[in-house]
Design goal:
517 residues; alpha/beta; 8-stranded parallel barrel; 3-stranded mixed beta sheet; 17 helices
């Protein structure tokens, strides 16, 4: 077997666009060229009714909300290290306390019940479970029972309140001991993740409704190891691509381990952050093809088809030879999943760089000098500024992009059910004199995006539910506490929670299944 055959899987040898492989930009080109359904052109519909059984939930992540960074046996994660490195996070903020969800989880669950949420998507902090890392050789890795007990109480508390637990195994907080051993660019981290998944399957698999293996592996790989704006902050494009593969491999191994250890009947999933692309200028299709490959198809094709895109391997040949892909890996990666998680916030516009004018880098991510999130295309494609309006993150507001994305994915993978696992917006909220938190911009954002999701349903998309990001204002990674996504305000001095107007609006939607007027 040649290395090319080993890397590319079943479609190896077919030129891009041939009968043996869809056009390289098919996934996202079908997204960007699909039409939208009738309704208000601004997506400000009301009175739309979602089908029975549609899940309305909200989401958080462990490092962003839990706090208790050194309590009950928790070990350090890469985000503990990164956030305490001067200059990495705005204002020097850390997740040491965050929203103190670790101590306030019961009242937070009461708040979810009050809002009428049907499901809660949370993540498990790997360093709470295996603070010293996995088993190695003759050494058996220590499993921290106090960490397991916390999540067991959380799951039981959700079930007692009629809320379905949706547990993510990995939302970016790699145990520091594993990063010290090489992190996601090394294969041993996928081995460790399989062991961790088996531990959690045995501990919670009798009660968890849905297991999600990874959240946004694109960010873990490219921002963590290529661009450097996320932990661990490395600037190594070859390591970023190796991390892509080992994250994909970790997903496949984890699904297998969870199935072997979960005694209930949970669903299995992964969550990807899709890039919905617009192209401008001469060569727009080529710019879309390149970025679509790195952002989207390098995950969807191995996960759902068991192959890496030939054009991505070619585009990155100057960066890596992909020798980290071993025989049998692609079969492990391609696991049947019950739902594909879709995270969407905005679109991106790309064009081929002319090589002379100042290159634009408006890809929506906090700048971090010295690295790139786009290995092999960083000196070929630029991200141009998009027209507003914008959220406080500087992201354009484009609800039509969500409809197009869902319809495009359904066309590309018609047998795969979908779930919007993150969608929401950061705005600069202010507390009113009466103590309320009016946030009309966020409410409008949610209304328009729920309208987009409803239109996708009308067009035949098998969309199972929608999780708003986020339940709480929280630690927003490299931005610290400067950006507020929550439908519930957190006063970071007192940790008091206040439901925002958007939260009350969403609560009505969750209870009735009808987009409020």
């Amino acid at each position: 077997m040649t290395k090319c055959d080993r890397v590319l899987g079943p479609s190896a040898g077919h030129p891009v666009g041939s009968a043996g492989e869809r056009s390289a930009d098919a996934t996202m080109k079908s997204v960007t060229t699909s039409t939208t359904t009738q309704g208000n052109t601004d997506y400000r519909d009301s009175g739309l009714v979602f089908p029975p059984g549609f899940t309305f939930g909200s989401a958080t992540a462990a490092y962003q909300v839990e706090g208790a960074f050194d309590e009950d046996g928790r070990g350090p994660s890469i985000w503990d290290t990164f956030s305490k490195t001067p200059g990495k996070v705005s204002n020097g903020d850390t997740g040491d306390v965050a929203c103190d969800h670790y101590h306030r989880w019961e009242s937070d669950l009461d708040l979810m019940k009050e809002l009428g949420l049907g499901a809660y998507r949370f993540s498990i902090a790997w360093p709470r479970i295996q603070p010293d890392g996995p088993s190695t050789g003759a050494r058996t890795g220590w499993v921290n029972q106090r960490g397991i007990d916390f999540y067991s109480r959380l799951v039981d508390g959700l079930l007692e309140r009629g809320i379905r637990p949706v547990a993510t195994l990995y939302h970016w907080d790699l145990p520091q001991v594993l990063e010290d051993a090489g992190g996601w660019p090394v294969r041993a981290t996928a081995d460790a993740f399989e062991e961790y998944a088996a531990i959690m399957g045995g501990a919670l698999g009798d009660r968890v409704h849905t297991w999600t293996t990874l959240n946004e592996p694109w960010c873990s790989a490219y921002l963590g190891y290529g661009q450097g704006g996320h932990a661990p902050g490395r600037h190594e494009p070859d390591a970023a691509l190796a991390a892509v593969h080992h994250l994909n491999l970790a997903h496949g191994r984890a699904v297998h381990a969870l199935r072997a250890t979960s005694t209930g009947d949970p669903d299995y999933s992964i969550t990807l952050n899709f890039h919905v692309l617009r192209g401008v200028g001469d060569g727009a299709d080529e710019a879309i093809r390149r970025i679509d490959g790195l952002a989207n198809r390098v995950f969807t094709q191995p996960l759902l088809r068991g192959e890496y895109p030939a054009d991505v391997v070619e585009d990155t040949a100057s960066v890596t030879d992909w020798s980290f892909v071993r025989e049998g890996d692609l079969a492990v990666i391609r696991q049947s999943i019950d739902v594909l998680g879709v995270n969407y916030y905005s679109t991106a516009t790309v064009r081929l760089w002319d090589g002379a004018s100042p290159m634009q880098h408006n890809d929506g991510h906090k700048a971090a000098g010295g690295g790139t999130a786009w290995p092999g295309s960083d000196r070929v494609v630029e991200f141009v500024e998009q027209p507003g309006p914008y959220t406080a993150m500087g992201w354009n507001i484009a609800p039509e992009g969500l409809e197009e994305l869902l319809v495009g994915l359904a066309a590309e993978y018609p047998e795969q059910p979908l779930m919007v696992t993150e969608n929401g917006a950061a705005f600069d909220d202010a507390v009113a004199d009466d103590g309320s938190v009016p946030d009309p911009e966020r409410l409008d954002y949610l209304r328009r995006h729920f309208t987009a999701a409803h239109r996708a349903l009308q067009r035949g998309v098998d969309l199972r539910g929608y999780f708003v990001w986020s339940l709480l204002d929280n630690f927003e990674w490299g931005y610290g506490y400067a950006k507020r996504f929550g439908i519930v305000r957190v006063d970071f001095d007192t940790l008091e929670r206040t439901v925002k107007d958007s939260g009350r609006w969403y609560g009505e939607l969750a209870r009735t299944g009808v987009i409020p007027g």
